TrEMBL record:
<dbReference type="GO" id="GO:0003723">
    <property type="term" value="F:RNA binding"/>
</dbReference>
<feature type="domain" description="Exosome complex component N-terminal">
    <location>
        <begin position="8"/>
        <end position="44"/>
    </location>
</feature>
<dbReference type="GO" id="GO:0005737">
    <property type="term" value="C:cytoplasm"/>
</dbReference>
<dbReference type="Pfam" id="PF14382">
    <property type="entry name" value="ECR1_N"/>
</dbReference>
<keyword id="KW-0963">Cytoplasm</keyword>
<dbReference type="GO" id="GO:0000176">
    <property type="term" value="C:nuclear exosome (RNase complex)"/>
</dbReference>
<feature type="compositionally biased region" description="Low complexity">
    <location>
        <begin position="59"/>
        <end position="85"/>
    </location>
</feature>
<feature type="region of interest" description="Disordered">
    <location>
        <begin position="53"/>
        <end position="89"/>
    </location>
</feature>
<feature type="compositionally biased region" description="Low complexity">
    <location>
        <begin position="126"/>
        <end position="142"/>
    </location>
</feature>
<dbReference type="GO" id="GO:0006396">
    <property type="term" value="P:RNA processing"/>
</dbReference>
<feature type="domain" description="Exosome complex component CSL4 C-terminal">
    <location>
        <begin position="90"/>
        <end position="204"/>
    </location>
</feature>
<keyword id="KW-0271">Exosome</keyword>
<protein>
    <recommendedName>
        <fullName>Exosome complex component CSL4 C-terminal domain-containing protein</fullName>
    </recommendedName>
</protein>
<dbReference type="InterPro" id="IPR025721">
    <property type="entry name" value="Exosome_cplx_N_dom"/>
</dbReference>
<dbReference type="Pfam" id="PF10447">
    <property type="entry name" value="EXOSC1"/>
</dbReference>
<dbReference type="GO" id="GO:0005730">
    <property type="term" value="C:nucleolus"/>
</dbReference>
<feature type="region of interest" description="Disordered">
    <location>
        <begin position="121"/>
        <end position="146"/>
    </location>
</feature>
Length: 257
């Protein structure tokens, strides 16, 4: 008799024997048992054939709750409200993130992840941007979930403090900055310390760093200050300009929306 599968799993929790299920993403096998490798909801993917086993996996994203079925006695809503978006509490592969550059080296740039954008934000770029979730290593959301306030505060040099150490850290390697002429990339011309960058997660990396890429037209620097301390605006995919002094500075610029 097989034991009941848990709804949520924590890392290292035993889920089921390999005789009953196949191990999927977010799990590992040890001593003929399947264990959770990450924290999250437990999912069972049905077998594709009668001879195969169902696949057991642990998701990084919380499950979307099904909308309750309408009953005849329930009052009808006058206007359909927007559905509640689903958030990632942890950066996952293909997650779109906003991050602040904290260090620029010859081969890579180190960034501190500020926001993990909702999945629908990357799929529906033409619509209004939904509320986002700020991240901390504990997986909690910040009280200040207003993206404009987060970015305005992050772009202010006076607010750069040791709080970066409490956020998820990531690396943008030289070969992941842009899709063309990778061998001609100069990191100091792509990013500067304090820039706000939109990137996507390409690897969970190791225990210290995620790996991001900006090698798409919609990815790159979205906010930056000039050497004079003024907010700049983009004039091309590789240049931003100070509206006060008129000076131009090189950046790997994200396509503005």
């Amino acid at each position: 008799m097989t034991s009941t599968l848990p709804t949520l799993a924590i890392p290292g929790q035993r889920l089921a024997p390999v005789s009953s299920y196949a191990a999927g993403p977010g799990t590992h096998v040890q001593n003929a048992n399947i264990y959770a490798s990450i924290a999250g909801p437990v999912l069972v993917n049905p077998a594709s054939s009668k001879t195969a086993k169902s696949t057991l996996s642990v998701s990084r994203s919380p499950l979307r709750k099904a909308a309750p079925s309408a009953s005849p006695s329930a009052p009808k809503s006058t206007a359909p409200g927007p559905s509640k978006p689903r958030y990632n509490t942890l950066p996952a592969v293909d997650s779109i993130v906003l991050a602040r550059v904290t260090r620029v080296q010859k081969r890579q740039a180190t960034v501190s992840i500020l926001v993990v954008l909702d999945e629908s934000a990357s799929n529906n770029k033409s619509g209004p941007q939904p509320t986002t979730t700020t991240t901390t290593p504990t997986g909690g959301s910040s009280d200040n979930d207003n993206i404009e306030a987060i970015l305005s505060s992050a772009a202010n040099p006076e607010n750069h403090s040791n709080s970066d150490e409490l956020r998820f850290q990531a690396l943008i390697r030289k070969e992941d900055v842009r899709a063309v002429e990778k061998d001609r990339v100069v990191m100091d011309e792509m990013f500067r310390v304090g820039d706000i960058v939109r990137g996507t997660v390409i690897s969970l990396g190791d225990q210290s760093f995620y790996y991001l890429t900006t090698a798409r037209n919609d990815l790159g620097v979205v906010m930056a200050r000039s050497e004079a301390g003024n907010m700049m605006f983009p004039v091309s995919w590789k240049e931003m300009r100070d509206p006060v002094t008129g000076a131009a500075e090189l950046r790997k610029v994200a396509r503005p929306f």
